[in-house]
Every structure is written in structure tokens, then in C-alpha cells.
Design goal:
The longest helix is centred in the last third of the chain and has 15 residues. The chain has two domains: about 120 residues, Response regulator (Rossmann fold, 3-Layer(aba) Sandwich), CATH 3.40.50; about 70 residues, Orthogonal Bundle (Arc Repressor Mutant, subunit A). The chain is of the alpha/beta class and about 220 residues long.
């Protein structure tokens, strides 16, 4: 059986080194390219047309390719012949489920990288998707009432802050717009994140977008 070509992408040198060593030990795969940002990644895929891409979810992006869901959607649309295995520190189940809905071959939490990546490589070499151990499904689309209940917990001022946050404004921008202090706006944003169970700015933004809020 011919070796399967692999490209790996991550902006953290230690992670990149760890993934490289694991892939190079596996005789079923041949590492053909590496990238540390979105533009390099797309160029590597165009050049090598690999069967597998192992990529970080959050990477330095640019206005063309971005990162996160925007990048993953682009890769799946333009390189359908490449299986995409996503590495991430994000634990927000809505984002993890959205990745599955988009059609990635698998998602691995970085804190479980060495425990899971060899299992994932075995599954993907057999053209099977890999489901991370303990992964839950909490699709926004599949659970609209669940999402509505969470947003109903937000105060009018928290909703106001989120509405501006989704447009791309920073905390300081929002504070100036609403004539509040940075500290107050930051506290309201953190409170909203806690109620929505979003553990990062990107998770919060994705939650709002996928929930069709403020559109």
C-alpha cells in the first residue's frame, strides 16, 4: 500500500515537533510539508495535494484565509480530497460539533494529543472518521430551544455588549460607544460568556453566529 501524504500545520514549535515525530514513525504516512500560518498552509496543500492534513484550529491568519471555522470551511471546500484532522484547545461543544457538521475527519484536544493521534492516524488510514474520546454533540442547530434559554439569561446590558462585540468591536471600543468604563464592559462580557458557557472570545463569537443572534 502506498504511503499517504501528510501536511501538518501549527504555530507552536513544540506541538509541530511532536506531531512531526509521531507522523514520521508511522510507516503508512509520508510527511511532505509543514506550515506555521494560514497562507503557508494553503500553499502547501496546493503544492502537495496530500491525503491528510493535521492542523491547529487557531493559527495566525490573514484577511484571505483567516483561521478557526473560516479557515476550516475554506480548506474543506477547496481541497475536498484531503482529510482534515483538527487539533485544538477549545472545549466549547458548540464549536466542536460545528466542526463535525462541516465534515472534518476528526478533532483532537491538544491535551490528549499523544494519547489520541496514533488512534486517529489508524482510523484515517482506513478512510474512517475519528471521534475523540468523550466528545459530546451539542449542535446549535439541533438544539434551538437550549440556545434560546441561554440567551434569555442575559441582561439587556449584556446583550448590548454582545451585539457590538459580534460586529468586531473591542472592549474599549464598546466602552466608548456605550459611555461605560472598560472595567464595566469587560465584566458584562465575562458574565455573558459564563452564562453561554463560552470559554474564549472565538467561542463566544462562533456561538452568537451559529445561534443566528444579532443578524
Amino acid at each position: 500500500m502506498p504511503e499517504l501524504k501528510v501536511v501538518i500545520a501549527d504555530d507552536h514549535p513544540i506541538v509541530l515537533l511532536g506531531v512531526r515525530e509521531i507522523v514520521q514513525r508511522d510507516s503508512r504516512y509520508r510527511l511532505v510539508g509543514e506550515a506555521i500560518n494560514s497562507s503557508e498552509l494553503v500553499e502547501q496543500l496546493r503544492q502537495h495535494r496530500p491525503q491528510l492534513l493535521i492542523t491547529d484550529f487557531n493559527m495566525p491568519g490573514d484577511s484571505t484565509y483567516g483561521d478557526g471555522l473560516k479557515l476550516i470551511e475554506y480548506l474543506l471546500r477547496h481541497f475536498p480530497e484531503t482529510q482534515v484532522l483538527v487539533l485544538t484547545m477549545i472545549s466549547n461543544n458548540l464549536i466542536l460539533t460545528r466542526l463535525q457538521e462541516l465534515g472534518v475527519a476528526g478533532v483532537i484536544q491538544k491535551n490528549h494529543l499523544h494519547d489520541e493521534i496514533e488512534k486517529a492516524l489508524s482510523a484515517l488510514s482506513a478512510q474512517r472518521h475519528y471521534k475523540s474520546v468523550g466528545a459530546e454533540s451539542h449542535s446549535v442547530i439541533a438544539n434551538p430551544h437550549h440556545v434560546e434559554e441561554r440567551f434569555e439569561q442575559l441582561s439587556p446590558r449584556e446583550l448590548e455588549v454582545l451585539r457590538l462585540f459580534v460586529t468586531g468591536m473591542s472592549v474599549s471600543d464598546i466602552a466608548r460607544q456605550l459611555c461605560r468604563s472598560n472595567k464595566t464592559v469587560s465584566a458584562q462580557k465575562i458574565s455573558a460568556m459564563r452564562k453561554l458557557e463560552a470559554d474564549s472570545d472565538q467561542a463566544l463569537l462562533t456561538y452568537c453566529i451559529e445561534a443566528r443572534q444579532f443578524q
